[in-house]
Design a protein that fits this description.
This protein is 66% helix and 5% strand. 45% of the residues are buried. Helix 13 packs across helix 14. It has a 5-stranded mixed β-sheet, with helices on both faces. It contains 23 helices and 5 strands. It folds into 2 domains: 388 residues, no CATH class; 97 residues, no CATH class. With 499 residues, the protein is mainly alpha-helical. The N and C termini lie far apart (76 Å). Helix 20 links the parallel strand 1 and strand 2.
C-alpha cells in the first residue's frame, strides 16, 4: 500500500504533462476542439486587450460579454508573446494546464482531509483524487475551451481548502477568504449566489455569537465586493446594467420540459465527471452514469453500516452544503431563464467537485485496490484520448465553424465586413467581423428580431452562418429583406446584401 500513492501520483504527473504538451500541437490541431465557439470570443477580447485596443472584440465597440478573470489572464498570455494569435493561443493553453494542475493539487488535499483515518489511507485518498481530477476526460472538454471553467473549479477548491482551516479567528485569513470569494465572482459572476449562500451560512452557524458572525460576514462579503467591484462598475457605467450582455443574449424565460430534461442530464454528468463521451454521447453513456451513481450510493451505505468510514469532517460537510444550496438556486434559474441548455453541463460544473473530493476519499477506505486499478485505467484511457487530441481527433468531434471560416475566406475580400450570429472562431481568425447574436455586441441586442435593418444601417454586406442563424437574423425568407445566397457548405450559408 505505501508505494501505491507514489505510483498514482507519478501517473497523474505524467498525465498533466500530456495536457501541457497539447499547447505545442500543430496549427491544424491547435485550432480544433475543445476550444469552444464562446471561447474564441474570450480569446479575441484577450488579444485585443493585449494589443492595447481596449476591452473590445472588434477593435471599435466595448464589450462585457465574457467572464473577466480568466479572459484578462489570457490577455496577459497574449501580451507576453507580443499579441500574436497563434503564440497567444499556445500560451493560453499552457495557462489552462497550470490552472488544471493547481486544481488537482487542491482537490487532493481536500480528499486527504475529508475523513479522519490512517495515514496510508489518507495518502491514497489524495493520490486517487489527484489522478481522478486529471483523468476525468470531461475536464479536458471543460478546462481547455478558452473559457473560465477550470479556473472557476480551482478557485472553488481554494475556498473550500481555506474553509477547512481555522480561518474565522485571524483577520488575515478572513481577508484572504474575501479575496478568494471576490476572485471567484470575477471568474464567473454567478458565483455571487455562492457568496450570498456563504454569508447566510456564516450567520446561521454563528447565531450563538451573532455579533461576531455579522462582523465576519461584513469583512468577507465586503472584501469580496471590493475585489469584484471594478467589473460591476465597468458594466454599470458603460452598459447600464451589472449583468454582462452575454447573459441578456441567452435569456428566454420559459417552463420548458426539454430544458428540464437537459438540466437533469447535466446534473448526472457533473455527478460522475469520469464518464463522458463528447460528440458520441448516447443513451448508453447516460446509463453508465446512472449505474455509477447507484454504485456509489450503495458503497456509501455499505461503508457506513460496516463503519468503514466516519462522518465527513465538519467543515467539508458545511462547505458542501453551501455549494449545494447555491446550485439549488442556480439550477432552476438557468432552466427557467436561459435557453442555451447545451451550456448547462458547463454552468453546473462546480458541483463535480463533490465527486472529485468525496468519491476518492470513500474509495481509499472502502475499496482501495479496486479504486487504484480503476483510477489507473481512467488515466490510461485519458492519455490515449489526449494523444488523439494532438492530431485534433478523438471524442470531441471537429468544429463546424471551420466550414464557416472557409466559406468566408473563399468568397469575401479581406477588407469587407462579415456579420454572423456565431462569430467566435471567425472573429479570431479574421478582421472585420461583427457579432449579431448579442453575446459580445450590445448594439445588436437593440435590433433583435430585425437584424437585417441593423446590417443595413451599418452598411454590412455579408452574412455567414448556419441555416437557423440565417433565418433568425435575416428572416425566414432573406431575399425579401434584400439578401441573396452566394454559397453554401453543409448547414452553413453565405449571404450578400443586394441593395
Amino acid at each position: 500500500m505505501p508505494a501505491l500513492p507514489r505510483l498514482l501520483a507519478f501517473a497523474g504527473a505524467a498525465l498533466w504533462l500530456f495536457y501541457a504538451a497539447l499547447a505545442g500541437r500543430p496549427p491544424a490541431a491547435l485550432y480544433a476542439t475543445p476550444i469552444a465557439e464562446d471561447g474564441w470570443y474570450a480569446l479575441t477580447v484577450a488579444r485585443a486587450v493585449a494589443r492595447g485596443l481596449g476591452v473590445t472584440i472588434d477593435g471599435v465597440d466595448p464589450t462585457n460579454g465574457f467572464q473577466p478573470l480568466f479572459t484578462f489572464l489570457e490577455a496577459a498570455c497574449f501580451a507576453l508573446v507580443g499579441g500574436g494569435a497563434e503564440a497567444g493561443l499556445r500560451a493560453s493553453l499552457l495557462l489552462a494546464a497550470l490552472v488544471h494542475g493547481a486544481g488537482a493539487l487542491l482537490v487532493a488535499g481536500l480528499a486527504r482531509d475529508a475523513w479522519d483515518g490512517a495515514r496510508d489511507e489518507r495518502r491514497l485518498a489524495a493520490a486517487l483524487a489527484f489522478v481522478g481530477y486529471l483523468a476525468a476526460i470531461k475536464a479536458y472538454n471543460d478546462f481547455y475551451t478558452g473559457l473560465e471553467t477550470g479556473l472557476q473549479l480551482a478557485l472553488y477548491a481554494a475556498v473550500w481548502r481555506l474553509y477547512t482551516r481555522d480561518w474565522r479567528h485571524l483577520a488575515g485569513d478572513r481577508i484572504a477568504m474575501g479575496v478568494l470569494l471576490g476572485m471567484l465572482v470575477l471568474a464567473r459572476i454567478d458565483a455571487a449566489v455562492f457568496v450570498a449562500a456563504f454569508c447566510l451560512a456564516e450567520l446561521w452557524q454563528g447565531r450563538g455569537a451573532f455579533g461576531a458572525a455579522i462582523l465576519r460576514c461584513f469583512t468577507v462579503g465586503g472584501v469580496a465586493v471590493l475585489v469584484s467591484s471594478p467589473w460591476w462598475i465597468y458594466n454599470v457605467v458603460v452598459f447600464g446594467h451589472p449583468m454582462p450582455i452575454s447573459g441578456f443574449a441567452q435569456q428566454s424565460p420559459e417552463l420548458s420540459g426539454e430544458r428540464a430534461w437537459t438540466a437533469l442530464w447535466a446534473l448526472r454528468s457533473v455527478a460522475v465527471p469520469w464518464i463522458f463521451a463528447g460528440a458520441y454521447e448516447a443513451w448508453w453513456t447516460d446509463a453508465l452514469r446512472v449505474a455509477a451513481i447507484a454504485a456509489i450510493a450503495a458503497l456509501v451505505a455499505l461503508s457506513r453500516r460496516r463503519q468503514l468510514v466516519g462522518p465527513i469532517e465538519a467543515e467539508s460537510r458545511a462547505f458542501a452544503c453551501i455549494l449545494l444550496a447555491a446550485y439549488a438556486a442556480l439550477v432552476p434559474y438557468y432552466w427557467i431563464v436561459f435557453f442555451a441548455d447545451w451550456f448547462y453541463i458547463r454552468y453546473f460544473a462546480p458541483l463535480s467537485l463533490l465527486a472529485f473530493v468525496f468519491v476518492p476519499a470513500l474509495a481509499a477506505r472502502a475499496i482501495p485496490r479496486a479504486a487504484a486499478a480503476a483510477t489507473a485505467a481512467a488515466a490510461a484511457l485519458a492519455a490515449v484520448l489526449l494523444v488523439l487530441a494532438w492530431r485534433g481527433e478523438g471524442l470531441f468531434g471537429a468544429s463546424s465553424h471551420h466550414v464557416q471560416l472557409a466559406l468566408v475566406e473563399k468568397h469575401v475580400l479581406p477588407g469587407d465586413t462579415v456579420a454572423a450570429g456565431q462569430s467566435g472562431m471567425l472573429g479570431f481568425r479574421r478582421a472585420y467581423v461583427v457579432n449579431v447574436d448579442g453575446k459580445v455586441n450590445a448594439e445588436a441586442l437593440k435590433w433583435r428580431g430585425r437584424i437585417w435593418e441593423y446590417l443595413d444601417a451599418r452598411d454590412i454586406g455579408w452574412f455567414a452562418d448556419s441555416t437557423w442563424y440565417v433565418e433568425t437574423n435575416l428572416g425566414p425568407r432573406p431575399e425579401e429583406n434584400g439578401w441573396r445566397e452566394v454559397a453554401a457548405d453543409g448547414d452553413f450559408r453565405l449571404y450578400r446584401r443586394v441593395r
